[in-house]
Design brief:
Elements lengths: L21 E3 L9 E4 L3 E5 L5 E6 L4 E6 L4 E6 L6 E6 L5 E6 L4 E6 L12 E4 L5 E6 L2 E6 L4 E7 L4 E9 L2 E8 L2 E6 L2 E4 L4 E9 L2 E8 L3 E9 L2 E2 L7 H9 L5
Antiparallel strand pairs: 1-20, 2-3, 3-4, 4-5, 6-7, 7-8, 8-9, 10-11, 11-12, 12-13, 14-15, 15-16, 16-17, 18-19, 19-20, 20-21
Length: 252
Amino acid sequence: MAIGLPVPPPRGFTNACSPLCASITLPNCAAVSGAAWTGEQIYAVDGLSPRVYVFRSDGLYLDRFRAIRVYRMVRFDDINKNRFAATDVSCSPRVFILNSRFEEIGGVALETQTFSDRIVLDAGYNRDGSGFLVTHPFSLRVYALDGSFVSTVTRNPVGRQFLHWAEFGLHRALNYTENDRTYITVDRVGGIVPECVALKAFIPMENNLYGAFNVGFIYTYFIPIYENGALNTSIFGSFSLIADNISTGCCN
């Protein structure tokens, strides 16, 4: 996959504040392993305890509640807006379906193609909510809602490992490691994520894409990656500047 240099915002880009602009820490001081945003609230999990933590879009802590199991990743269905997809802490190739109240209403076993497919790094709904987009270490695959295999989007070249991918609007985003560096691209254009920063979740919302970034283990920043037709190139720079912007209530 070719990768371009970070591109400047298109002409007409404005610095309007993002609807998702937050910095959070979990009350148990654990790191966020996965997170989702409904447009109104952030739901975060730590992959260690059967707890779900709820925050406002600006990062204000609201509540926590007990889940049926420990979840490692969670993704909101921004099309149907009434369910989440989640994965657990094991290496079992399963995706769990949660309703809008985070109650587990189902689970499917994925029809894996290779042994490495038993490792599910991330899973979310596709553009129309008719299937799952699943990240395996060495392949990106599409599965139907019943877990049956649909197609392989791509296999990684030697030396690359996939971490996350998402489709939003007409765009595709990818997060992967290669040559000891971590990359984020949107439609094959992107850059290198700074050291000591890890993307924990892609958060697609209609035609925009946001990210949950861990910095310094317990600190998680929710900021736009692609918003209003523009790639946010600041994610490839200094996160201290991003933190300063969040403190003023803006992420752009």
